[in-house]
Amino acid sequence: LGEAADELLAGMRDGSIVNRSGDTYKPSVTRGYEQSLRIHLLPDLGARRLDDLTTGDFQRLVERIRKDGLDASTVRNAMLPARVIYRRAIQLERVPFNPTVGLALPVEAAQLIAATPTGDRVIWATAFYGGLRFGELRALRWEDIDLAGGMIHVRRSWDEKEGVVGPKSIAGTRRVPIPALLRAALELARARRAWTDGLAFGRTYGTPFGSTGVYKRARKAWKAAGLDPITMHEARHTYASMMIAAGVAPKELQEYMGHSSITVTLDRYGHLFAGTHEQAALKLGAYLALAASSRTAGTRARVVV
Questions:
Q1: Are 81 and 8 in contact (CB under 8 A)?
Q2: Across all residues in the chain, what is the average pLDDT?
Q3: Are 121 and 110 in contact (CB under 8 A)?
Q4: What is the b/e burial string over 149-186, where b = at least 16 CB atoms within 10 angstroms of the residue's CB?
Q5: 113, 214, 200: which is closest to 154 by C-alpha?
Q6: 150 within 8 A of 177, measured Cβ to Cβ
Q7: 53 or 197, greater pLDDT
């Protein structure tokens, strides 16, 4: 990782390595990456092989940094160089996967949503608090949103060329619970819309919001507010990590995310269910102890833990 970091910084300085927009990195960004690498990443992981590091290694580092009392933006910024290093490593076929994908990073969701333009806030709120995919957000209709029942019914997606299409998989057709923060955003957006049975977030009744405009407006607003940008897909990852932190079980998360199988959910987010096996062992131990106690007392009991 240390050698890859040196390559990254050198390429950022001479312009041979550019960002995802194809632009050269500003000197201030390069200095920020160098500082994050020197302070947070390299002391613990610098000597490790790129193809040996796991998501768990980076997650443990994130948790250690958070314990130091650093704010959410600092923790997220600390991982940015690693993400760029691994995106480049995959392009160069040095590693088969990116272990920085799916990390449970602290995200100031409410602050990011509040900073976006008024008309876009409900879109980002549904991404953060509902976990819908980008195409699903574009195709969502008011009749899919059951505010009284507290559920969003995901029934379709939007393809740039084909228009309305089915969800990504059979499991993509699903129900997603509406938390209080999202309900408030949806109610406000509905009150402001001129239509109540077309596309919920569309520019018109039947025209979805633009595929690039919502990103451009958000990035501009976040930059002005001094906030780090995030993508819709990262917002979806944030939704998953918040659901896990709230105690949602893997099978439930699979259903809400619309994953094709529980294997996909566990492969992507299994490391975030830290402590689940310990809790299971404690429950089993308690059950066995109670069962043994019942046998000793000469009784047969159905023990519920």
A1: yes
A2: 86
A3: no
A4: eeebbbbbbbeeeeebeebbeebbebbbebeeebeebb
A5: 200
A6: yes
A7: 53
- Listed in sequence order, the residues at least 6 apart from 114 whose beta carbon sits closer than 8 Å to its beta carbon are 121
Cβ-contact 59, 51 below 8 angstroms: no
Angle, vertex CA 222, rays to CA 220 and CA 225, nearest 5:
110
Tokens of residue 250, six digits: 């893997």
Does 121 score more than 60 pLDDT? yes
Is 0.85 topped by the overall pTM?
A: no
List, for residues 240-262, the tens digit of each pLDDT value: 888 887 788 889 999 999 998 88
Question: How far apart, in whole angstroms, are the C-alpha atoms of residue 123 and residue 138?
Answer: 9
Count Cβ atoms within 10 A of the Cβ of residue 246 and give its class: 0-12 exposed, 13-18 middle, 19 or more buried: exposed
Nearest residue to 237 (alpha-carbon basis) of 43, 76, 120, 16: 76
Integer Cα distance of 258 and 133 in angstroms? 9
* Residue at token pair 């976990």: 131
Least confident of 5-14, 142-151, 220-229: 220-229
CB atoms within 10 A of CB 108: 16
Which amino acid is located at 264 in the chain? Answer: V
Rounded CA gap, 239 and 237, in Å?
5
Q: Which residue has the tokens 């876009």?
A: 120
